[in-house]
Amino acid sequence: MSEDRRLHVLRAIVQDYVQTSEPVGSKALVERHQLGVSAATVRNDMALLEEEGLIHAPHTSAGRVPTDLGYRVFVDRLSEVKPLSRGERTAITQFLSGAVDLDDIVDRTVRLLASLTRQVAVVQYPSLTRSTVRHVELVPMGGTRLMVVLIVNTGRVEQRVVDLGRDLTSPEGETLVASARARMNELATGLPFRVAATGLRTLVDEFSDDDRRVIEPVVTAIEEVLVEEREERVVLAGQANLARLGADFPSSIGPILEALEEHVVLLRLLGELSDDPELVSVRIGRENPVSGLQSTSLVSVGYGSGAERVASLGVLGPTRMDYPTTMAAVRAVARYVSEILGDARST
Amino acid sequence: MSEDRRLHVLRAIVQDYVQTSEPVGSKALVERHQLGVSAATVRNDMALLEEEGLIHAPHTSAGRVPTDLGYRVFVDRLSEVKPLSRGERTAITQFLSGAVDLDDIVDRTVRLLASLTRQVAVVQYPSLTRSTVRHVELVPMGGTRLMVVLIVNTGRVEQRVVDLGRDLTSPEGETLVASARARMNELATGLPFRVAATGLRTLVDEFSDDDRRVIEPVVTAIEEVLVEEREERVVLAGQANLARLGADFPSSIGPILEALEEHVVLLRLLGELSDDPELVSVRIGRENPVSGLQSTSLVSVGYGSGAERVASLGVLGPTRMDYPTTMAAVRAVARYVSEILGDARST
DNA sequence: ACTTGGCACTCGGTAAACGAGAGTGCCAGA
DNA sequence: TCTGGCACTCTCGTTTACCGAGTGCCAAGT
Predict the structure, then answer these.
(1) Chain A residues in contact with B147 (beta carbon < 8 A)
(2) Does residue B209 carry a pLDDT above 50?
(3) What is the number of CB-based contacts under 8 A between chain A and chain B?
(4) A 46-65, residues with C-beta < 7 Å of strand C
(5) For residue B255, what are the contacts with CB-CB under 8 A and spacing of at least 6?
(6) Residues forming beta bridges with residue B66, ordered by sequence position
(7) Are the CB atoms for A10 and A70 separated by under 8 Å?
(8) pLDDT band at A346 (very low <50, low <70, confident <90, very high)
(9) Alpha carbon of A160 to those of A139, A147, B160: distances in Å?
(10) Does residue B346 surpass a pLDDT of 70?
């Protein structure tokens, strides 16, 4: 009872099942793979694998199907990363390099990922909390209102309008705005957003009581932008693929679609992964904390501008998915997106 | 053979079918509605309605189901607008009034519409081409790069970075930017975006040859923003409702989900409707040009900031939908969103 | 000229019965 | 420890039979 062969058998089962989507029996296995043993032997191995909880028989007289645990072992120990074809690589660069702004990058990325993997793609917008400030702009809007515009290194732009209860159209108002703008940029440019925000808070004291009434709300607005994690957004594509794969989901795709509309939950899922930006994380079936997604697997990885990870992206599909290929696609896309964001920053 | 009664029968059929989702027979009809005639009479009427193409029998011995044409007659001539309940109205205002920026308004709107109608909601972003310029801002980014920020009356903000090949950090550079900014705002503020763009083009001649090399790319960038109708975006919510209503769709929901991912197509659909902002447009089944959506109906209406329509929103569901209620919900939401956008503009 | 009750007929859907096929578990022998 | 053989189990697809809802039509009533 070589441990080794048993794992070979497991791998063969996973591969066949992924391909045919039908429970695989001992006979079919020995026919399709060179295992060098007879069907009866394979049956014994299967019985053991079943005891270990790696595979499972839907009913007495059907073939075996991998369990979540079985896929886990497959992913961790048995699969080799499948490199993308040359065509796929160029398709990725081609498609992504045409993007004109951040929205466009994200949009293209998610579509690309969906069509590449033929599953549901999820892309998180680069989060503010991990990015650095590139520029702060104050735009008087006539009257007492001022627009605060924040530009961060990922290309993302946030704006808030604040009402200061004081008319800024006077010459003094304008110089105040100008000096505030200058000081803020001096202080914040290049710093991580979170650090910049606390730094700006101390800036308030530099000004006279009167002016402080103007500066303070501006700083508050900036802090609010940071606090509003609500602003964390995800974008989806490829939901239609769920319908195509419908047979793979025990009940129906309804609960899955519902779960996908809970963006907050998706964000949490994407957030919970290793900090190593190169490491692709895989969450298989029940390992997934979200009810409704327990018949799916999520393959995700961080991406960012250059080395620092600012957000995540991933692919969601049935547990019966082609993990090596999906993981390769996810990783490749994340890399290119990071590259593009890095370029945008440096120029 | 009173024409009148036949329409009563049609209305009854539509109402019953919408409620039960089962073909309705003559007997059930006379039981549930006070038609004052016998089942046999109703059968005769039904035969006529079938000849007219308003209803249809799935097979010899089943009840009748409305055809697309039947629904059309129902919507145009037989349905009364069903006013929303007090609770629903307050729910709408409550939910929408908490929005902090344009993204948030659109996001909340689409979710609200989906949960209100329990169908798929579609909201188009306020389009630039129909809105007016509120402010133009030029932000030097250090070096030779300049960020052009456009703020329009719907609260939408667009930005582009242009590389001018000339260093602007010098004092002359700064005054040039300042004067360009001033002139641009003088010229463009308050004008419809399209008019403003052509107006700005003439501005180029005001400057000396040297400076023109700076101004020209900026104007070009603004024109590009306008041209890029690509930037027209839609947001969806409630796809999960499709799964719930799955039985209503002949084949599967796959093609529908696919069609919904073609945002360009959706935009075209939303664009093709009457200019009367108060008029709710209904496209029923086959009336719909998009293959894949031919088993669905789209209820849509324009909305905007104040009186001018700048975009559309709507609801997509099975042809077997509760038209009066859906139409009421769509109209009410559009009204409130318009109100909110109007407020944002005036303040 | 409509309306109505009666009646034969049609046809989809469900349930039961059945056979085929695939796959297993186990055992005895190599 | 592996292998061939064999009896057993269970799903799935097919066939058959039947029930009931609903229709279309007709002859009689108002």
Answers:
(1) 135, 137, 151
(2) yes
(3) 82
(4) 46-47, 50, 57, 60-64
(5) A240, B291, B292
(6) B55
(7) yes
(8) very low
(9) 10, 6, 18
(10) no
Long-range CB contacts (< 8 A, 24+ apart) of A169-176?
A: A169/A140, A169/A142, A169/A143, A173/A140, A174/A140, A176/A211, A176/A214
- The closest alpha carbon to B137, from B21, B222, B202, belongs to B222
Q: Which residue, chain included where needed, has tokens 């795709």? A: A253
Q: Give the tokens for residue A141.
A: 């809007």
Distance CA B69 to C1' C6 in A: 34
- The pair of three-digit structure tokens given for residue A18, joined into one six-digit string: 């992924």
* Two structure tokens written together for B205: 């001649």
**Residues A157-175 pLDDT 10s:** 777 778 887 787 788 888 8
A-side interface with B, Cβ within 8 Å?
Answer: 100-101, 103-104, 134-135, 137, 139, 141, 145, 147, 149, 151, 157, 159-160, 163, 228, 233, 237-240, 242-244, 246, 252-255, 257-258, 260-261, 347
Q: B103, B211 in Cβ contact below 8 A? A: no
CA-to-CA distance for B344 and B347, rounded, in angstroms? 6
Q: Say which DSSP state A158 is in.
A: E
**pLDDT tens for each residue of B263-296:** 999 999 988 876 666 789 999 999 999 988 999 9
Between B3-20 and B39-51, two packed helices, what is the crossing angle to 10 degrees? Answer: 90
